[in-house]
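In this supplementary section we document a worked example of the pipeline. Step one takes a protein sequence of length 189 as its only input; no multiple sequence alignment statistics are reported here. Step two produces a three-dimensional model, which step three serialises into structure tokens for compact storage. The input and output of this example are shown verbatim.
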Amino acid sequence: MGFLDTLLGRSKPKKPDLDRLFALPTAAITLEAAAGLTPTGVGSVCFRAAEGAAFAQIEKDVRELLDSDEGPKVELSKDSYGYTWLVSRHEPTDLVGLVTDLHAVNSSLESGGFGPQLLCSVVAFATPDGRRTGLVYLYKRGTFYPFAPTSGERRDNALELQVRGAVGADLPVEGDLSRWFPVWGAPGL
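The serialised model returned by step three reads:
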């Protein structure tokens, strides 16, 4: 950062801290106690696919890495906005394994030089009555926020605020509510 950058108000973006994903199992215990939310075993990483052989190779390597264990194969899907979702499924009790998979995907894309294509990671939870809620990790901000879709393209704001209050001590929650972007059609939600 130079003098001119400081004078003009430009700042260097924060480097994402992917290790924050490993705080999710602790937050899940808090969520279950405070709001009755339990993990569903579904998590996903959202990114904009890049063209070229280098990106295709990293994507292939990540899929092979995650498919190498005994669990179900990872899925790849595209949403209506043109983003690609890599979905991992585990037993609901294996949140640590799910988070490890999500961390591996994010780390692989980042180390391959494709960090700017990463948008977010989502871990799905369910309410006692079966509604889905996600904890969204914003890659570029290094923060989490809850997303609770309801019927149509509507959100349960009260539940989102309840989740924010419950996990605030366990996770770095995004303080700017305008950055709580809806992730309509996210796998698992």
